[in-house]
Amino acid sequence: MYIMIYQMVMEVQDHNPSSIYFVAFAFCFLFVLFKIVQSWGSYNSSTNLPPGPCTLPLIGNLHHFVGSVPHRSLKKLADKYGPLMTIKLGEVSNIIVTSPEIAQEILKTHDLTFCDRPSLSSSRIVSYNYTNLAFARYGEYWRQLRKICTVELLTTKRVQSFRSLREEEASEMVKKIAASEGCVINLTHNIYPMTYGITARAAFGKKSRYQQVFISKIEEQLKLMGGFSVAELYPSSRLLQMMANTKLEKVHRHIDRILQDIIEEHRNRSSSDREAVEDLVDVLLAYQEKGSTSHLTDDNIKAVIQDIFTGGGETSSSVVEWGMSELIRSPRAMEKAQAEVRRVYDSKGYVDETELEQLVYLKSIIKEILRLHPPVPLLVPRESRERCQINGYEIPSKTRVILNAWAIGRDPKYWSEADSFIPERFHNNSIDFRGTDFEYIPFGGGRRICPGILFAIPNIELPLASLLYHFDWRLPNQMKNEELDMTECSGITLRRENDLYLIPIITRPPSNM
Ligand code: HEM
What we know:
alpha+beta; four-stranded mixed β-sheet; 18 helices; 8% strand; binds protoporphyrin IX containing FE; membrane; monooxygenase; transmembrane helix
């Protein structure tokens, strides 16, 4: 029906512009009427679903999300309706989990029931029809891909092989910042390109001519996927899907062309052109050539490379950015962190990865940032594979499940002064983000836990240590520490709404300045 109306609009457009408005109005009216009748039909169905707020026709509970970022709105609702609740967004029912106990039920006790992903229309486009790791349906294909990632691409050894390129990119950032000593700089604009630079070089090898345009297209794609997309809220509307995803498809086609060129370039390289360090495209192509039982197509390779970019770029950058923001607001923690980094590296005069293990306080800072500002605050949505009982409530098969990791990390039952930045809380305790402590799940848990932890941690530790070692930091315009704006922006990752502007004062000049 929607396609017919869409075609009608297109035909009328060629003849009489005023008629377009009439047809568009008629369409909206029919759509609203249809949805009201549909939602009345489902209103009275008696189930034992978890509780939740009353829904409005057509929009469900969307009105609760106006004026706040989703993880905060969901926390407010959970305070009223409990740690397991039903929220309707548009026409889609979601189960929201907001306590460590229920997170454990989902991620451990019933992991196999909840390890699927919903088939969202935007993820179909960017994932080559659900063939990347993040959006693949649970099954044999996902298992094979996961194995390639954990055994070939994201191992300790592979991550270590990228050490020198991480050190080069971090040192380049430091030199660039040092050139603006005493001036107000946009630190955000220094951090994000550095992390993307590391990811691009790990994926494609030495600085590729495609690097800049590829990164900007990936950032554009992430922006288009962020927030509640209308198309995801009304999956039954083919017209909405078509209209909402047109731009995303265009950006994806551009990314696809670049990735295919990069693959061809790698394929056609002579052995003398190959670099000493294998990049991730090399590894995937070698796997493809082996022609093992789990054959990888070019599209599969492109899907995995995008996984690594979308997983690896924004997330680590946002931790560094929030880290600097919290440290500026807490001069005591800043001083302590700088004293540690300077004690460890002063004999060398620069920061490299050899001594990162000694930075115990910095590691606690990073853990605290991942608790207060988890880059993926609602994790990646899960979908139940069969009916299941949780806490006495019925969760039907094929229900979307969202875990509010942000709220769980601030649960006052588990965290004292939960909203305060106190890195010391991680001293002398074994709480870790590897998916076994359910009050702290910034990387998720269970079999879909983030496979990129090893890749992410040095991308955060090295730049943060470098920024703390070489510079003291001041706020612009004599702003007081506590006045720094900490507003969050809702998107696919939890970034600062406004870029971070600071003044660097060199205390240890970088070499070759
Ligand atoms: C601070 C950095 C990062 C954070 C906080 C983070 C967080 C997450 C979270 C919350 C999930 C969903 C887990 C779940 O459903 O339980 C996830 C999945 C994933 N992440 Fe990360 N991530 C980070 C860095 C990375 C990096 C560096 C990579 C790759 C190099 C990566 C690749 C992936 C992939 C491929 C998945 C999908 C796994 C699957 O569905 O099987 N992530 N990540």
